[in-house]
Amino acid sequence: MLKGIHLTLMIGPVVAFPVPQTILDALTSVSVTSNSGPATPSVFELSFTLSNNSPLQTLFLVSGGSPIPLVRVMLIATINGTPEVLIDGFMTDHHVAPGSDSSHSTLTVKGQDVTAAMDFMDFSGFPFPAMPAEARVAILLAKYAMFGVIPMVIPSIMLDVPIPTQQIPRQQGTDLNYINQLASNVGYEFYVTPGPAPGVNVAYWGPRVTLGVPQPALNVNMDAFTNVESLSFSYANDRKSMPIVFVQEPISKVPIPIPIPDFNPLSPPLGAIEPIPMRFEPVEGASKLSTIQALLIGLARQSLTADAVTGTGTLDVVRYGRPLKARQLVGVRGAGMAFDGLYYVKSVTHSIKRGEYKQNFTLTRNGLISTVPAVPS
Hints:
Layout: E1 5-13, E2 17-18, H1 21-26, E3 27-35, E4 43-51, H2 56-59, E5 71-79, E6 82-98, E7 104-113, H3 115-118, H4 133-142, E8 149-153, H5 175-185, E9 189-194, E10 201-206, E11 215-219, E12 230-235, E13 242-248, E14 255-259, E15 271-273, E16 280-282, H6 291-303, E17 309-316, H7 317-320, E18 329-333, E19 341-353, E20 356-365, E21 368-370
Parallel strand pairs: 8-10, 11-18, 13-16
Antiparallel strand pairs: 1-2, 1-5, 3-4, 3-19, 4-7, 5-6, 6-7, 9-10, 12-17, 13-14, 15-21, 17-20, 18-19, 19-20
Helix pairs in contact: 4-5
């Protein structure tokens, strides 16, 4: 690997252990993608050179089968002495491609983060009497403490506790499907972030948070201070819409329209000039729900169209000095007054080969022109 960058690969059932040096030497490329959005887990792909006498034949093709259904994989990049857990998850797929000679092939191992374990069994019908969505999510995540999962559950702004005499919520599908369903009902996100220590995973269920200390700025068109290889922006001013929720007045049964504004105290706007909603979208089926449930669904719909500015680019981690992390803030400098400022890192893809460590990234925010006078360098 590159000078100053050391890659550690750990594999095992439930508890992962460092692999032998022969397996690490056979590793040719690594790809890890971290996303932010509904039902988008982090995924990884490992490519190995596979010979007929390689221990990989037994380690992956046998242990990845039915005797051990969950094979854990941890990938840690140590950059200038600082470890960064890139992925902590489970193998889900193996593929072998024959090589050009008779003794070497390519083994590709794919997988996703620890949410793969949450999608293994169907628990449909499990009751949750008198529990809001937050309590249900916390109970479901407690099952996966053996994988180092630490729940971080943020209560919704409008707490909805179903009355047992009227309704008892029941689980639908696997734990992962039900958690994602509960998140989408209130406009929340659910994802698992590996680290900060190896073997620990933070399971976040809550709104998109655009607060906190930004990562070092991405510099473009700044000569010697430029630290990205490419960065381009697009502005979709026709994407934003305003949901309209219709609720019934309990006595007269008259439908009352309620527009859902773009407001989230945990996600303040990063752009000063937001696009005007180009259309109004009625939320179908909301009139059959309670007022709180209808408003929560309206907030969920509104959050899907909030981002008008999108930036995509590539950087070299050695030049940037550290891996860019998804689901956090980062500053942009040198792109012009309209696009400079803070952004939310929506997705990051790590691409690692011998002698190369690059990242492709996607940035988003709600509008043009920065809301802050300067960004951290």
